[in-house]
């Protein structure tokens, strides 16, 4: 079916594109951002301009979801994020992990920076991101610097570099499981499944007993099944059911569970 009418933005400026995991569909996707004027169009001809220019933020190529902002609102948001980022960098350089944005709650400094560099990237301010990385080049923040560098390289689509950065983060702080999960996810995107499995296994060990262990084990089991590594999958399934018995109510999981049981040779 041809779409003969709808809305579309024209006269696009400040265009950027980046990669990463979509907050709507969860897939590894390509996102485009731009300022543009929306027109109602008919047979591909723009006919009626609909209001003023809008910033389209991270239009996902997998699910077509996006956010739209008035450009002034968008710029004010970027300005605020820059101030908060500067404070987060200072905190990390002083060996602190959290900052207080408002008096009510403290925020994880690295998470704030990851969220912020994503916005700066989408607004084409790559220099600001490089400036943050340069300021994190400090003995106190090796882990944060490697994590943030990996995040930026992921947005650039340079996955093999991002994978190396996560390795550096793991080396700097081997007891934090987040870098393992992130690295394994990117290895999966790069079709390096057996390497990913090894990293998920290491991450699951580090996260043992923590709430995040379950998710890591579920991903691990899924990829072990894909690789027909049934003996290992069988053991991981047992661990998953121990951690979260209702998993057996999930049809897909139960099917994989029984298949691994049947195929495993050393139970
Ligand atoms: Zn999406």
State the main characteristics.
five-stranded antiparallel sheet, alpha+beta, globular, 53% helix, binds zinc ion, 267 residues, two-stranded antiparallel sheet
The structural class is: alpha+beta
Query: Runs with pLDDT <50, length 5+?
Result: none
Q: Compute the CA-based radius of gyration.
A: 22 Å
Report the helical percentage.
40-55%
Q: Tell me which ligands are bound.
A: zinc ion
Q: Quote the CATH topology of the domain at 174-267.
A: Serine Threonine Protein Phosphatase 5, Tetratricopeptide repeat
Going by CATH, the architecture of the domain at 174-267 would be: Alpha Horseshoe
Can you put this structure into words, describing what you see?
- This protein is of the alpha+beta class and 267 residues long.
- Among the domains are: 5-69, no CATH class; 174-267, Serine Threonine Protein Phosphatase 5, Tetratricopeptide repeat.
- 53% of the residues lie in helices and 21% in strands.
- It has helices at 71-93, 109-122, 126-135, 142-155, 159-172, 178-189, 193-206, 213-226, 230-243, 251-263; strands at 5-21, 28-42, 45-49, 54-60, 67-69, 98-102, 105-108.
- α1 (71-93) runs antiparallel to α2 (109-122), α5 packs antiparallel against α6 and α6 (178-189) packs antiparallel against α7.
- The longest helix is centred in the N-terminal third of the chain and has 23 residues, at 71-93.
- The chain is globular.
- The model has no long low-confidence stretch (mean pLDDT 92).
- Zinc ion (ZN) binds at residues 22, 24-25, 27, 29, 60, 62-63, 65.
């Amino acid at each position: 079916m041809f779409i003969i009418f709808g809305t579309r933005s024209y006269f696009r400026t400040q265009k950027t594109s980046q990669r990463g995991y979509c907050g709507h569909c969860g897939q590894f996707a390509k996102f485009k951002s731009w300022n543009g004027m929306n027109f109602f169009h008919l047979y591909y001809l723009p006919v009626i301009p609909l209001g003023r220019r809008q910033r389209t933020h991270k239009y996902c190529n997998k699910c077509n979801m996006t956010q739209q902002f008035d450009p002034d609102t968008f710029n004010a948001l970027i300005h605020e994020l820059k101030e908060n980022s500067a404070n987060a960098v200072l905190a990390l350089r002083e060996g602190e992990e959290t900052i207080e944005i408002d008096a009510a709650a403290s925020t994880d400094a690295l998470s704030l920076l990851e969220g912020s560099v994503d916005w700066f990237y989408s607004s084409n301010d790559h220099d600001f991101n490089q400036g943050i990385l340069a300021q994190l080049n400090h003995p106190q923040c090796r882990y944060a610097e490697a994590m943030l560098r990996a995040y930026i390289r992921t947005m650039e689509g340079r996955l093999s570099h991002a994978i190396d950065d996560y390795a550096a983060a793991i080396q700097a702080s081997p007891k934090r499981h987040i870098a393992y999960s992130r690295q394994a996810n990117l290895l999966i995107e790069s079709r390096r499944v057996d390497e990913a499995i090894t990293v998920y296994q290491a991450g699951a060990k580090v996260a043992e007993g923590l709430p995040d262990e379950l998710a890591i084990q579920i991903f691990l089991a899924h990829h072990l099944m894909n690789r027909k590594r049934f003996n290992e999958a069988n053991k991981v399934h047992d661990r998953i059911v121990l951690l979260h018995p209702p998993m057996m109510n999930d049809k897909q999981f139960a099917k994989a569970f029984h298949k691994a049981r049947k195929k495993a040779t050393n139970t």
